[in-house]
Write a structure and sequence with these properties.
Number of helices: 8
Low-confidence stretches: 144-159
Oligomer: single chain
Helix content: 55-70%
Number of domains: 1
Strand content: under 5%
Radius of gyration: 23 Å
Number of strands: 0
Order of helices and strands: HHHHHHHH
Structural class: mainly alpha
């Protein structure tokens, strides 16, 4: 990111008629605007990581993740709920905001709004998903029978000892 202002300035100097380059260059040459962009990019790179990890989790193939889906959804819900009401987004982000001489509370309000939007979309899509009850029922599997290793080591008959599972699907 530290190279962006010079890169876009050179690109704009090579093509002065390009309106998009002119707008980008204008923002990046303005120290205040560059500070805002830097803060937003740091926020996104720090807090989007959790969503990326969950996306990676749900895209795993040939791994026994199905019984763990409900727990992962609960974890993601807690993560989003925590930050939609948070007044603390970590010292590195707070230091960056202060370095550019902005008010942390103003940025924190924007960050909370981002988490609020994510929460509303999450609730709208996940709460009404037709397989949510199935994921909920599958979480009653005893974790001692869930291994990350070879699927051949599993004994499906051992799941029969879990009467709660059969009550929930029967």
């Amino acid at each position: 990111m530290i190279y962006w202002p010079n890169f876009f300035k050179e690109e704009f100097n090579n093509d002065k008629k390009h309106n998009t380059l002119a707008a980008i260059n204008s923002y990046l040459q303005n120290e205040r605007e560059l500070g805002i962009i830097t803060i937003y990019l740091n926020f996104i790179s720090s807090y989007a990581n959790e969503f990326i990890q969950d996306l990676d989790f749900f895209q795993q193939l040939k791994k026994p993740v199905f019984p763990l889906v409900e727990l992962r959804l609960q974890h993601l819900t807690a993560y989003i709920e925590t930050y939609r009401n948070s007044n603390d987004f970590g010292p590195s982000l707070e230091d960056l905001i202060s370095q550019y001489q902005f008010n942390t509370n103003e940025f924190y309000a924007i960050f909370r709004t981002a988490f609020e939007v994510a929460y509303n979309k999450f609730v709208a899509h996940i709460s009404n998903h037709p397989s949510l009850q199935l994921f909920n029922a599958c979480q009653v599997f005893n974790p001692k029978y869930i291994h990350a290793g070879d699927l051949l080591r599993k004994n499906i008959r051992q799941y029969g000892v879990n009467k709660e599972f059969f009550k929930s699907i029967g």
